[in-house]
Design goal:
The chain is mainly β. The protein is about 5% helix and about 45% strand.
Length: about 130
């Protein structure tokens, strides 16, 4: 069992930046972020494997968000969010799992992720 805990949410203005952190109790194969906006379904945002650290991004955040894993134990993942837009407003959830999926489609399906955090609110507003 892996526990993950998010931190770093908050309120920022459009165009601003925010960094989310996710601390895991172990070093899962992959760590990632999903989000749920008001009235919408949960959606994949970004993910990163253990070293060498292949990354995955939703089209809506490519070029603006960067996911990484840091420290030698690779138990922490970061989501650097730049050029934030009001439509990025959502509860952001850190997630993790230990299964390798050859396809990006399978990798990014929420149903294939086993460990979830409680979520952190990100609000983009003037």
């Amino acid at each position: 069992q892996v526990q993950v805990v998010e931190s770093g949410g908050g309120l920022v203005q459009p165009g601003g930046s925010l960094r989310l952190s996710c601390k895991a109790s172990a070093s899962p194969f992959i760590m990632g972020w999903f989000r749920r906006a008001p009235g919408k379904e949960r959606e994949f945002v970004a993910a990163v494997n253990r070293s060498p650290g292949r990354t995955y991004y939703a089209d809506s955040v490519k070029g603006r968000f960067t996911i990484s894993r840091n420290n030698e134990l690779e138990t922490t993942a970061y989501l650097q969010m730049n050029s934030l837009k009001p439509e990025d407003t959502a509860v952001y959830f850190c997630a993790a799992h230990n299964t390798y999926y050859p396809s990006e489609y399978s990798t990014t399906r929420a149903e294939n992720w086993d460990y979830w955090g409680q979520g952190t609110q990100v609000t983009i507003s003037p």
